[in-house]
Design a protein that fits this description.
mainly alpha; rod-shaped
């Protein structure tokens, strides 16, 4: 911290001995030592606090960057998932309903529910949604009430 040579310390001690005298010098040396100790502890404490604040700020920055990266990856994943679901549902709505092949053997006498025809409905206001509802009601697609989050 301070750079004093032995000669400078000796000169300081001689001046203190002359100015204070032999009776007051020990007490003054103890007081100077106590003050130097207090100053050192204060400086060390302040340095530790500054280092702690710097480390805390760096940690906050790292956490914020990581949270931003997670938000971006989650958002991108959610967008991909949603766009895939929309594309799949649009493609499914455009496909014609397929009927299974006619059964053979004993089951040929029973009527097949898929063989029944659904009467044509008038053109709906919302073509995609109404067509999908009609498709589901006709029994061509299973209805799932479970939604993935």
């Amino acid at each position: 911290m301070f750079d004093f040579s032995f000669g400078e310390l000796t000169l300081f001690a001689v001046i203190a001995l002359v100015v204070l005298g032999p009776e007051k010098l020990p007490h003054a040396a103890r007081m100077a030592g106590a003050w130097v100790g207090r100053i050192r502890r204060s400086v060390i404490s302040i340095q530790a606090e500054i280092e702690k604040e710097v480390a805390t700020q760096e940690m906050r920055e790292r956490i914020e960057k990581e949270m931003q990266r997670i938000r971006e990856s989650d958002l991108a994943l959610e967008l991909k998932k949603t766009s895939g679901e929309v594309n799949d549902s649009v493609l499914d709505m455009g496909k014609p309903a397929t009927t299974p092949a006619a059964p053979t053997g004993l089951m040929t006498a029973l009527p097949s529910p898929a063989a029944e025809t659904v009467p044509a409905a008038p053109e709906p206001e919302k073509p995609g949604e109404e067509a999908f509802k009609a498709f589901v009601q006709a029994g061509h697609a299973p209805v799932s009430t479970h939604q993935d989050t």
